[in-house]
From TrEMBL:
Coiled coil: none annotated. It comes from Micromonospora rhizosphaerae. This is SRSO17 transposase. NCBIfam families: transpos_IS701 (NF033540). Residues 12-220 form the Transposase IS701-like DDE domain. InterPro entries: IS701-like, IS701-like_DDE_dom, RNaseH-like_sf.
Amino acid sequence: MLFDDLLFTVGQRFRRPEPRRRVRDFVRGLLAPLPRKNCWTIAEHAGDAGPDGMQDLLTRVKWDDVAVRADVREFICEQFGDTEAVLVIDETGDLKKGRHTVGVQRQYSGTAGKIENCQLAVHLVYATEVVHAMLDAALYLPKSWCDDPQRRAEAGVPEQVRFATKPQLASRMIETAVTAGLPCRWVAGDEAYGADPRLAAQLRQLQLGYVLAVACSHQVTTSLGVYRVDALATGLPASAWQRVSAGRGAKGHRYYDWSFTALPAHRDQHGGHHWLLIRRNRTTGELAFYRCWSPEPVPLHTLVTVAGRRWKIEESFQAAKTGLGLDQHQNRRWTSWHRWTTLAILAHAFLAAATAHRDRPDPAGLIPLTVNELRHLFNVLIIEPTRRHTDPLLWSVRRRRHQARAMKSHYARQALIEP
C-alpha cells in the first residue's frame, strides 16, 4: 500500500518504534476530518491517553525534518517524476496573535490581502500536467527577529540561521531539489520572485527555464531602447495577440489573449532565450506581465502552459489548509513549526501520489479522484475501521483540567501587575 510504503521509508529516520508509530498516527490525524487539528485532537483521534506523546514528537524527540522532506522528495520523484515538471514558488501567511510565535510580526500577507500580524513561509510545489504536490517549505524570519538574540533564543532559532529574503529562500529550495536529481524543466512564480534578478540568474545557471511574473513598472531592454513593460503592451498591434488556454478549469478552458516578444539584448553568459510574455484578460482587458527564459527556443503555448501551472500552488495551499491543518498548528518554536509543516507536506504528497495512480480509465461520467475526495475515502475506508478509540470522558476531564490550570495561571499573572 502506498501509505505504508511512504511511512516505512520515513520511519527509518527514527531510532525507536514509539516515534515511528506516533508519526504514522500523526499523519493519519492530519488526514482525518477533525474540526480542529492540534496535538490534543490528533492524540485523541489516535487513541492515546494524553497529548504528551504527540507534543514530544514535535519538540523533544530527535529527528531531522530536512531528511524527512528529502524522503518525500524522493517519493514524489519515484511516483510521478516528470522531466517537463514545473517547480512553483510562492509564500502563504498564517494570521497569529501576540509576538512570541517564531517569525511573527506585522507584515503584508497575500492570504489576508493586507498588513496583518502574521507568520510567512515560502513553499515549493512540484507540478506536472496531471498532479501536483507540496515539496518543501522555509519559514521567513524577518530582520527584526534575526537581530533580536533574546527572541531567537526563546523561539529556538538555530545559531546559523541568518536573514534571507523570500527569493533567497526559494532559491535555496530549488537548488536543493535540482541538486538531488529531481526531474524538472521549469520554474514559475509571482511578482515577488520575478523582481529579483539574482534568482533569475541562478535559475539560468541551473539551466532551468522560468516564467516569472513582474510588475507593470518592470523595465526591459529591446533593440529600440529601455521600456516599461506596460508601455510596450500599449503599442502592440492586434495581430500580436493570440488566444491560448492557460489550462483546464472546472468550468472550461482558461482562455486569455497572449503576446510574447523576444528580448535578444538580455542574453548573458548563460546563453538561452529571453522573452516578455503578456497576458490580457478577454473580459476586463487587465494585463499581466512575465519575464521568461529557456535554454532553447520554445513556442508560445509552452510558456503559457508554465504560466498557467503556477496556480497549482494555490490549489495545494487550499487542500493543505482546509484538509490537512497546515495553518492550524499551535507551535511557537522553530523546530516544532518545521516538523508540523513537514508532516503536512508528507500527507499531501501521499494524497497527490495516490491520485496520480490510475491504472484503469475512469468510468464514464466521473471526474478523476481529487485530493479532497481521496482523503475522505482514505479516512472512511482505511483509518476509521482500524483506529483505536479512547474514553471520551477521560479526554473531557483532561481538557477541563488543563483549561482550569491555564485560567488560574492567567489570573495569578494578572494579580502581580494589576492593583
